[in-house]
Amino acid sequence: MLSEFTHWLISGLILLGSFFVLLGSVGMVKFPDFFMRLHAPTKASTLGVTAILVASMIYFTIKHQSPSLHELLIVVFLWLTAPISALMMASAGRRVHKKKADTD
Predict the structure, then answer these.
(1) Among candidate residues 93, 85, 80, 78, the one with its CA nearest the CA of residue 36
(2) Per-residue pLDDT tens over the stretch 7-34
(3) 62 SS3 class
């Protein structure tokens, strides 16, 4: 079963992850332009979701007495796709911004 330390560790990771996701969401709403709004959820939410998934991985590994690797795969795919999608959105935003500046 789960020890007292494991409960605290899992709870701490979930709270830390929730804090980072909240921070990314607030940054997305509060920052003034597209590029700053793109940066906040990309960094903070990736860390937040990773912390929550690590907590889930620890919980289900201990509960089922076998490694839970589904969450690890999600983390790997998240870390691979989040920077790439942010780069693509930033490139598209830069092109739109440049086209607007040229027409003005």
Answers:
(1) 93
(2) 999 999 999 999 999 998 898 888 888 8
(3) helix
How buried is 102 (Cβ within 10 angstroms: 0-12 exposed, 13-18 middle, 19+ buried)? Answer: exposed
Domain ranges of the chain: 1-103
pLDDT at residue 67, as a whole number: 87
Angle, helices 34-64 vs 4-30, to 10°: value is 160
pLDDT score of 104: 66
CB-CB contact of 17 with 51 (8 Å): yes
Q: List phi, psi (to 5°) of 70.
A: -60, -45
Query: Rounded CA gap, 98 and 96, in Å?
Result: 5
Contacts of 23 (CB under 8 A, 6+ apart): 40, 44, 48
Report how many helices (DSSP H) and strands (DSSP E) the chain contains, helices first: 3, 0
> Letter for the amino acid at 16?
L
| pTM assigned to the model | 0.83
